[in-house]
What we know:
alpha+beta; four-stranded mixed β-sheet
Amino acid sequence: MASLVAWNLLTFNLFLIILQVLAGRDFYKILGVSKNAKLNQIKKAYRTLAKELHPDKNPGDEDANKRFQDLGAAYEVLSDAEKRKIYDKHGEEGLSKGDVGGDPFSSFFGDFSFFGGGGGNRDREIPRGGDIVMDLDVTLEELYSGNFVEVVRYKPVAKPAKGTRKCNCRTEMVTQQLGPGRFQMTQQQVCDDCPNVKMVPEEKLLEIEIEPGMRDGQEYPFVAEGEPHIDGEPGDLRFKIKQQKHRRFERKGDDLYTNVTISLKDALVGFEMDIQHLDGHMVHVVRDKITWPGARMRKPGEGMPNYENNNVKGQLFITFDIDFPKGTLTEEEKEALIKILKQDSKQVVYNGLQASMFA
């Protein structure tokens, strides 16, 4: 009896394993989100796990590398509305085959028609509403750390109205029998009768994710949120990122640039200071040698996060300006400075814009 129970348990476990293999990977479990998770929750989960499992942070860890690959596959599917729909219906296997829905006979026989009878699925181009492109002002802080921005959209939506209207109008070939063995083919515009509709503006809240590392001019699309078309599909709504100017930092690609003005004393004897970064952390700067006007310091890893890989950051370049003291020096002070600096008087006239050519 005990051996029979053990055999049944073994068979059941093998059956579960086979089912899991056939069903493919559980993308929701991989990302750690529920099946009704919103897009921003999926993106947030992916970004958190990607930083944790990235190969740069786990060198030589095969398990972390595999989990990172599974994470990428899960995000690719669940962040795409169409792929997610197929996955929810047919699992991972359905993605490799495509959506198995639809009428197999129509795809086999096509739109073959006799004497203008026509098939039900003509390959007519579906009319489409216009796309809307809007600028979205974003701060450099938001592009560094990421943020979610809510935008209220008043979208025209079709609502039922009294009466009917002509719709789906198209030109078709119509055949008429003129007599025994005689036919005439003519073009004729054919329309359907559709229920009448009216466009009513509806308020809709759109959530835009400002992802770390996004660039000026990059677009964030909302499919089918553009201008409606009464007989077709709406266009898309696209928000174009417009990076606002920053008081302290200039961005070029993934690098940041800033200027620091120091006193002549600091330039000569050295100094220490902290620069507050875009997310509030401090960048420590130490100079223990003479700093000349226009001197530049490079701080690796203190630039902007790379959009494709947030684990990689650009560089921060710091250019120093010298604030010379005002006023005049006494003859004694001038003599003392000459002794300290140990420099001869020197004046050189040159073309500063083409200096490299004459070096």
